[in-house]
Each structure stands twice: as structure tokens, then as C-alpha cells.
User: Which sequence fits this backbone?
């Protein structure tokens, strides 16, 4: 008897330690990045583009990367949503539902989810070469869309699937067409989940480095058109960290802190927004 | 009326067309990579490429051996660290934790999953690299002398090594594994647990004999999905693993995984013949490996879900 209770206690202790290790790891990461990043963060970092000699430790900031990252992530998220929403509808009973084709689409989404973003980056770059384009905002957006699409579709499908059949049938019974039912009932009812899915994908997109490495390029200027190369925050961290100058490395820490702050703020907004919008859902 | 019918037709067309594109997308990516990596496979044999240990693009030698070994080692090491901790944490969340604890920990896992990989990488550079080079490596040199592969060569490590890469990677895959494992464990029918508890089993005995056994396929799938995630992770590993193309002899040696090879060289390889083809072959190897693992895991998960639904 005693041994059984001992075993219970032993494993319970191990479990609590494991949870503590995971949560503790998260807190340590945030603490280290904040402590190091805040030290080098100043107003110029946020409001100026790199001036001459910036990478040797002279004046300037990473506004080019902040704007670039936002442009890349907003573009890719919009494009991904344009694909993810219809795919989610297709997977519902109202459209393809349980058909073989729907099963293929579902498997394809699962597979796309697993493909590493560096593969999307390499693929995107070959497509750019094939089209005779160079690394640009547009190229980065396309590669990033591929990364975001499966993440967004997976989360969105979960929300869309939860809309009760009764509600949809009420709409059909009134003579609503399939699209009217989707737009006025399903979209509204699943809105909290859909917004969460979109913001989740945005957060992943803005932090992804491997896919934009070759497709978006890097520049010290702000993007003027879709065909210009753009800088991005993850690459700003990476490149500045690679220089031998402590001041510039400090700015890499600050850039990482800015990136982390954006991602955390988005995750908080998505939670608040989800709660706020769900007021309008029928339970 | 006709306007409504037209809208219905148009939107249905949009839905179906987009879904077909998504369905074909995996194939398109794979086909493009195969097409672009054909030149090097035709020039060298696939066996020589995968098994070769010499990487000298200038002389036309492309041996992926060290890179494949590096990827496998860093991933396996990361999984060895992550899996026990993640499974224990998932069991705690699914079987022991109060609703209030779950409500705090689950969102934190989502935050952890959302942290950008460069941030993980920077964390590794700032904290783990000095920790490994100043404390872990000297300690291992003193105390683990007899263990092969566990001591730094010449008693010294820069900290940019397999071990650091694996720790960073383990932290990155933890939320993936825990989330799926937790979901799988929550799918174990309450009645089965109650049957075990009713005959006097302790909670841990119930977990051991009932939940784990019932959830085993799903748990395997969660680990496999974590593995494939780790396999293709690029930036974070690249920043801390050292990137030296040799076969690592100990965990304190640097390694050079496949994703890092692509990231470091792609885009600037145009002048060397076949270089670009070689790097796309590396991407193809990554993709095929990950797809194989994912297909297997998804199959197991589907079976497990179907059984849970009965």
C-alpha cells in the first residue's frame, strides 16, 4: 500500500516539475529578451530607418524592418484568409463535407501544416526565378501566405465546424441560399473563432524568418511598391546579431524585443477580441 | 431572385476552385522541388549524394552526409529531452490539473507556440550558449569522462553546439507535443477511468494502466508531429548550433543541419553549377521526410479519433 502511494507521489511530483519547467521556460525567455532588449531600445530605434554606418554602430533605427514586417504579415494574412475561409466552408456538410475530395483537401492541409517554412522559402524563390522576378514584398507575401494558410485554415475550420446544424437549418428553412446562410449565420456565429484564427496566423507570419529570407530580400529603405525588396524584423535580429559590434548586437536584442512585444500584444488582442465578439453569438 | 442564384453559383465556384488549389498545392510544391533537383540527381547518384561526406560545391562534390547526420542528431537529442517532460506535463494537464490551472497553462502554451523562432535563437545565444560553454561542458569534462559522446573534445566547447541547439529545439516543440497529447488524453472515456478508480487503483495506476494504454496511438502521433516540426526548424537552430560541416562526435561539437545549409547558402549560389539544384534537393529531402512522418502520424490520429468516437 505504502509503495503504491509513494509511486503516486513520485510521479505527481515529476509532473508538477514538468509543467513548472515548461511555464518557467516561457517566463525565462520573456524575461531575458525583455531585460536585454529594453537596455538598447530607444525612440530612434522605432522611428528611424538605418542611416549611413548604422551597422557599424552609428545613428538610425529599424523602422524599415518594422514597416516591412507589418506589410508582409498584413498582405500574407489577407491573402491567406481569402483562401482559408472558402476551404473551411468546403469542408462543411453544406458543401463537400464527408466526400472523398474533402478528405483529400483535409489531408493536404495537414501536410501543408507540416512543411517547414524554409521549404516554402526555397520553393517561393524558385518560383520568383522562374517568373524572372527578384526578391520583393510581393514574393515575400506569397511565401508567407503558404506558411500562414494551413495554420489559419486549421484554426478557422475548428470554429466554423462548431456552428450548430440547427441554426443553419433555420436559415435554409426560411429559404436562405447556401451562401446567404454562410455569410449571415455561419460567419457571424463563428466570428470569434475566425478572428482568433486570423490573428494567430498573423502572429506566426510576422515572426517567420526562413520563408522571407530569400523571397523578400532586405533593404534599409521603406517599401514603396510591391516589387521593391523589404526588410523584416526577424531578419533584422539575425543580421544585426551577426555583426561584431556590441552596439549593433544590442540593437538586435532590441529588435527581438520589439518583435516579441508585437507577437504578445497580438495574442492578447486576439483573446480580448474573441471574448468581446462572442457576445453576438447564439449559444 | 436571379441575383441571389447568381451569387450562390459564383461563391460555390470560388469555394470549390480554392479548395482544389489547396488540394493540389502540396503536389505542386513537391513537383517544383523534384523538377529543380533533377539536374544534380542525374549528374551524381542519389546514393553518393546522401551518403557522401564531402561538401565542396566549387569542385562539384555534394555529399549531404554530415548535414543529414547533423539534422538527425539535433532532432533526436531534442526529442529525448522534450518527450518525457511533455508527456508528463500533458498527463498532469489532462488528468490531474484543476480547471483553473488548465485555464492558465493552456493559453501560456499558445503563447509559447507563437514566439518567433529568432527570439528562441536569440535566447539561446544570450543564455544557453554561455551556460553550456562555461558550466555544462567543463562539468561534463570532469564527471562524464567514461561516457562516449558526452564530453567535449579537449575539455572545451564554444557553446555553439548540438546540445544548445537541441535544448532550444526542445523548448520550441514542447507546446506542439503537449497540446496534442493533452487533447488525446482528454479523449479517454471518463467511464474507463472510473472503472479503474472504482476497483481501488490510485490515480497514477489509472493513468498507467488505462489512460496511457488507451491513448497510446494518439500519444505516439503527438511525438511524431513534434519530431517533424523539429526536423525542419531553421532559424533558431541555425543561430546556436555552430554550422560546421563535420560529423559531430559529441554533444558539445558543432553540427550543420540541412535547413541551416539551405538558409546560409541559398540566394548566393548562382555562379556555381548545380549548387542551386543541390540546395533544392536538400529542401526536397526535408519535405519528403517530414511528409512521411506527418502522414503516418495523421493516419494514427484519425484511427484513434474514430475509436474514441465509438
Assistant:
Amino acid at each position: 500500500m505504502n509503495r503504491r502511494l509513494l509511486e503516486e507521489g513520485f510521479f505527481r511530483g515529476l509532473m508538477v516539475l514538468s509543467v513548472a519547467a515548461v511555464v518557467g521556460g516561457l517566463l525565462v525567455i520573456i524575461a531575458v529578451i525583455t531585460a536585454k532588449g529594453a537596455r538598447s531600445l530607444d525612440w530612434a530605434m522605432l522611428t528611424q530607418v538605418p542611416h549611413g554606418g548604422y551597422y557599424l554602430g552609428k545613428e538610425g533605427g529599424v523602422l524599415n524592418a518594422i514597416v516591412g514586417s507589418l506589410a508582409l504579415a498584413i498582405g500574407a494574412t489577407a491573402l491567406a484568409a481569402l483562401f482559408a475561409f472558402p476551404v473551411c466552408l468546403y469542408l462543411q456538410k453544406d458543401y463537400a463535407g464527408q466526400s472523398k475530395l474533402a478528405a483529400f483537401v483535409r489531408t493536404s492541409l495537414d501536410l501543408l501544416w507540416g512543411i517547414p517554412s524554409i521549404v516554402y522559402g526555397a520553393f517561393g524563390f524558385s518560383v520568383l526565378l522562374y517568373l524572372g522576378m527578384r526578391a520583393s514584398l510581393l514574393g515575400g507575401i506569397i511565401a508567407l501566405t503558404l506558411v500562414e494558410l494551413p495554420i489559419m485554415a486549421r484554426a478557422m475550420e475548428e470554429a466554423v465546424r462548431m456552428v450548430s446544424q440547427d441554426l443553419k437549418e433555420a436559415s435554409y428553412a426560411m429559404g436562405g441560399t447556401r451562401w446567404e446562410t454562410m455569410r449571415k449565420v455561419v460567419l457571424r456565429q463563428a466570428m470569434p473563432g475566425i478572428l482568433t484564427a486570423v490573428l494567430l496566423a498573423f502572429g506566426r507570419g510576422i515572426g517567420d524568418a526562413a520563408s522571407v529570407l530569400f523571397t523578400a530580400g532586405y533593404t534599409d529603405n521603406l517599401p514603396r511598391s510591391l516589387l521593391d525588396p523589404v526588410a523584416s524584423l526577424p531578419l533584422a535580429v539575425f543580421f544585426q546579431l551577426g555583426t561584431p559590434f556590441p552596439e549593433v548586437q544590442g540593437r538586435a536584442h532590441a529588435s527581438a524585443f520589439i518583435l516579441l512585444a508585437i507577437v504578445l500584444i497580438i495574442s492578447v488582442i486576439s483573446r480580448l477580441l474573441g471574448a468581446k465578439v462572442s457576445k453576438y453569438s447564439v449559444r | 431572385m436571379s441575383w441571389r442564384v447568381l451569387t450562390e453559383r459564383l461563391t460555390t465556384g470560388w469555394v470549390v476552385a480554392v479548395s482544389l488549389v489547396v488540394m493540389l498545392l502540396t503536389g505542386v510544391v513537391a513537383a517544383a522541388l523534384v523538377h529543380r533537383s533533377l539536374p544534380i540527381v542525374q549528374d551524381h547518384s542519389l546514393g553518393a549524394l546522401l551518403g557522401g561526406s564531402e561538401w565542396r560545391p566549387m569542385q562539384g562534390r555534394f555529399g549531404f552526409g554530415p548535414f543529414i547526420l547533423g539534422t538527425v542528431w539535433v532532432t533526436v537529442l531534442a526529442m529525448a529531452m522534450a518527450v518525457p517532460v511533455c508527456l508528463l506535463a500533458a498527463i498532469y494537464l489532462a488528468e490531474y490539473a484543476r480547471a483553473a490551472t488548465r485555464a492558465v497553462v493552456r493559453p501560456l502554451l499558445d503563447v509559447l507556440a507563437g514566439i518567433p523562432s529568432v527570439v528562441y535563437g536569440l535566447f539561446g545565444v544570450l543564455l544557453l550558449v554561455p551556460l553550456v560553454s562555461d558550466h555544462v561542458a567543463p562539468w561534463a569534462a570532469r564527471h562524464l569522462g567514461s561516457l562516449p559522446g558526452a564530453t567535449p573534445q579537449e575539455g572545451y566547447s564554444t557553446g555553439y553546439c548540438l546540445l544548445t541547439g537541441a535544448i532550444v529545439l526542445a523548448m520550441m516543440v514542447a507546446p506542439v507535443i503537449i497540446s496534442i497529447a493533452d487533447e488525446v488524453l482528454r479523449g479517454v472515456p471518463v467511464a474507463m477511468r472510473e472503472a479503474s478508480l472504482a476497483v481501488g487503483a490510485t490515480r497514477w495506476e489509472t493513468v498507467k494502466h488505462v489512460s496511457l494504454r488507451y491513448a497510446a496511438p494518439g500519444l505516439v502521433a503527438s511525438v511524431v508531429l513534434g519530431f517533424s516540426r523539429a526536423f525542419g526548424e531553421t532559424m533558431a537552430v541555425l543561430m546556436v548550433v555552430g554550422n560546421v560541416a563535420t560529423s559531430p562526435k559529441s554533444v558539445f561539437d558543432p553540427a550543420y543541419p540541412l535547413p541551416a545549409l539551405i538558409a546560409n547558402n541559398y540566394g548566393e549560389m548562382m555562379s556555381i553549377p548545380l549548387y542551386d539544384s543541390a540546395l533544392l534537393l536538400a529542401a526536397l529531402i526535408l519535405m519528403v521526410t517530414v511528409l512521411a512522418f506527418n502522414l503516418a502520424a495523421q493516419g494514427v490520429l484519425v484511427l484513434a479519433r474514430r475509436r474514441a468516437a465509438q
Summary: DSSP finds twelve helices and no strands in chain A. Chain A has a mean pLDDT of 88. Residues 89 and 95 of chain A are 7 Å apart (CA to CA).
